[in-house]
């Protein structure tokens, strides 16, 4: 079994400390509901830079170059160099949390996997378990940001490649600012100054909540009731399913034709196809209840809309419940239409009602509450993943870590070819094998 060698650990701080006016950032209901789940872990695989590319980096090593460019990126994304603060409210036995932009720094680890090649990551049927070792803070929950870094980067050198694994506290960011940070870092790394990147500056203000939320929020939170150890789904496997632009177009056309509409999107059609395939492969009883949970971005669904550059969480959970026979007796169009309706139901009024209800009765999400008959899809094919060139070429693959994984978790990314999509599916080996034997499912994967 391959082992990771850890070469060095550094603390990377922003070059300039934030002004006192921006020292404290409040956490919203969208942020606080994630205190007891894992961090976001996403990483990119690159071939090693050529000698000419290394020379252009103008640093003693690629590692030093990445450290320096990360420090300059933290000048822009300064909260990521901070820590969470928990305040115990004795009057009502609750707790409050906020981000202290104290510039204590992000963690940066340089590691080596001596006998792992880029092909070892790209070629296997299932994602290798060693990929989980390319990320830091496995098993660390978000609330532990009170003592641990909010951002932890591990750069792992392979025989012929480099993997940049980024772990970010999910109470501080969701997928949109995660990739906004990654895009900005890569642009600075390949030579742009902090004030000349094409990326829009991040926005940390909580103006949307003015008038109907009093910060800081008081929530029931007791550390002594949280289990010390996290269990990971070791019997599960991960496989990346690639859908070409052509096959996606065919699924979308089929779903819309079956429902007599043009409203079903490409993503909804592919998710419907995957949902039906997983349910077929799990061999449930016909009357078994099944669920599909969606992470729905609401930045543009509220009034006034949140800016795309807003740093924080802005996601609600859509939930579809049906029975196995109902899902499978209907076609692809019906499944995709249920997903379409669940997303459309997240209106500005529903978002505001959710926030107000949460403030009155806070609910902190736990992945242990996810049932075995549920699937959930996170991330987005719209994120700029393959544009992240750090000065040594574009990535050849994206992978996620072990965080927030369970039987039925799907993570969607853009594919490396324009218009394609990749779904990283975390499922039991038995389900994955049954899907490989499912002609209807596999036909949509054929080139």
Describe this structure in words.
- The chain is 27% helix and 23% strand.
- Helix 6 (245-259) crosses helix 7 (266-281), helix 6 packs across helix 9 (332-344) and helix 7 (266-281) crosses helix 9 (332-344).
- It has 447 residues and is α+β, with helices and mostly antiparallel strands.
- The protein has helices at 29-32, 51-57, 62-76, 118-122, 175-189, 245-259, 266-281, 324-329, 332-344, 348-360, 429-436, 439-443, and strands at 5-12, 24-26, 40-47, 83-89, 94-100, 106-112, 151-157, 161-168, 237-243, 289-297, 315-323, 374-379, 397-400, 409-414, 421-427.
- It has 12 helices and 15 strands.
Instruction: Count every helix, treating DSSP H or I runs of 4 or more residues as helices.
Output: 12
Strand content: 15-25%
Q: How would a crystallographer describe the biggest sheet?
A: 6 strands, mixed
Helix content: 25-40%
> How does the overall form come out from the CA principal axes?
globular
Superfamily (CATH H level) name of the largest domain = Chloramphenicol acetyltransferase-like domain
Query: What is the radius of gyration?
Result: 22 Å
Per CATH, what is the topology of the largest domain? Chloramphenicol Acetyltransferase
Number of strands: 15
Order of helices and strands: EEHEHHEEEHEEHEHHEEHHHEEEEHH
Termini Cα gap: 34 Å
Question: What structural class results from the helix and strand content?
Answer: alpha+beta
For the largest beta sheet, what order do the strands appear in spatially?
Answer: 1-6-7-8-3-13
């Amino acid at each position: 079994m391959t082992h990771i060698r850890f070469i060095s650990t550094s603390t990377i701080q922003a070059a300039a400390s934030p002004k006192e006016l921006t020292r404290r950032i409040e956490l919203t209901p969208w942020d606080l509901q994630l205190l007891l789940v894992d961090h976001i872990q996403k990483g990119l695989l690159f071939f090693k830079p050529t000698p000419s590319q290394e020379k252009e980096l103008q640093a003693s090593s690629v590692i030093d170059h990445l450290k320096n460019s990360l420090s300059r990126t933290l000048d822009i994304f300064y909260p990521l160099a901070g820590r969470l603060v928990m305040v115990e409210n004795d009057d009502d036995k609750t707790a409050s949390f906020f981000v202290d932009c104290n510039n204590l720094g992000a963690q940066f680890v340089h590691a080596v996997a001596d006998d792992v090649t880029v092909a070892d990551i790209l070629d296997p049927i299932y994602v290798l378990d060693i990929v989980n070792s390319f990320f830091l803070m496995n098993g660390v929950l978000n609330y532990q940001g009170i003592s641990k870094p909010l951002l932890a980067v591990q750069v792992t050198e392979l025989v012929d490649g480099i993997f940049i694994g980024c772990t970010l506290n999910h109470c501080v960011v969701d997928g949109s600012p995660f990739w906004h940070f990654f895009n900005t870092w890569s642009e600075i790394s390949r030579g742009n100054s902090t004030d000349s990147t094409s990326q829009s500056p991040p926005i940390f203000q909580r103006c949307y909540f003015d008038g109907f939320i009093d910060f800081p929020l008081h929530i029931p939170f007791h550390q002594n009731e949280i289990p010390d150890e996290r269990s990971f789904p070791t019997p599960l496997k991960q496989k990346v399913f690639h859908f070409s632009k052509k096959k996606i177009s065919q699924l979308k056309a089929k779903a819309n034709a079956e429902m007599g509409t043009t409203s079903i999107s490409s993503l909804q059609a592919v998710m419907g196809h995957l949902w039906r395939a997983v349910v077929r492969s799990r061999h449930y009883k016909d009357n078994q209840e099944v669920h599909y949970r969606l992470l729905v971005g609401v930045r543009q669904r509220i009034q006034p809309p949140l800016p795309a550059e807003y740093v924080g969480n802005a996601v609600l959970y859509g939930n579809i419940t049906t029975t196995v026979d109902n899902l499978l007796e209907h076609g692809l169009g019906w499944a995709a239409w249920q997903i379409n309706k669940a997303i459309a139901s997240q209106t500005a009024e529903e978002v505001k009602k959710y926030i107000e209800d949460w403030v009155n009765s806070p609910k902190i999400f736990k992945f242990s509450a996810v049932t075995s008959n549920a699937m959930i899809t996170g991330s987005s094919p719209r994120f700029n993943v393959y544009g992240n060139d750090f000065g040594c070429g574009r990535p050849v693959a994206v992978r996620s870590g072990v965080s927030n994984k369970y039987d039925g978790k799907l993570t969607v990314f853009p594919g490396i070819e324009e218009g394609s999509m990749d779904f990283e599916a975390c499922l039991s080996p038995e389900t994955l094998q049954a899907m490989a034997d499912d002609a209807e499912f596999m036909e949509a994967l054929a080139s």
